[in-house]
UniProtKB/TrEMBL annotation:
Start and end residues of each Zinc finger DksA/TraR C4-type domain: 92-124
Superkingdom of the organism of origin: Bacteria
Taxonomic path: Bacteria, Pseudomonadati, Bacteroidota, Flavobacteriia, Flavobacteriales
Keywords of this entry: Coiled coil, Metal-binding, Zinc, Zinc-finger
Organism: Polaribacter aestuariivivens
Protein name (record): TraR/DksA family transcriptional regulator
Length: 125
């Protein structure tokens, strides 16, 4: 019977914690940029009051804002998932596949530190 690790070492968990914290910081910066782009239109001029204002431009701007709102929502979910990963580190369940109970591969966690499923379990979905 092979020796199966049931949890990552404290050193591994510290490394994952650093990766997650860096990703959270970057994600928050990206979120702030997205929010700024749809909350504060940099153009506070009166261009849209001119009679020759094209409705195409208006429609395009609305679509762009909607796209940025959707990206911001995804970014907020990503940050929440990363914070949940930090909670799993604290409570000792980080890196354990919720479907198989086995450790998720270290390489996977380095790329997707908020993963809760191993590749094996993800493929079965």
């Amino acid at each position: 019977m092979p020796d199966v690790k049931l949890k990552y070492s404290d050193e591994d968990l510290q490394e994952f914690k650093e990766i997650i914290n860096k990703k959270i910081a970057r994600a928050k910066e990206d979120l702030a940029l997205l929010e700024a782009s749809y909350k504060n239109d940099a153009n506070n001029g009166t261009d849209d009051t001119l009679s020759n204002f094209k409705s195409f431009d208006e429609g395009s701007e609305v679509m762009s804002k909607e796209a940025n709102v959707q990206l911001a929502i995804r970014q907020e979910k990503f940050i929440r998932d990363l914070k949940n990963a930090l909670l799993r580190i604290e409570n000792g369940t980080y890196g354990i596949c919720r479907a198989t109970g086995k450790l998720i591969q270290k390489e996977r966690l380095k790329l997707v530190p908020h993963a809760t499923l191993s590749i094996e379990a993800k493929r079965k979905q």
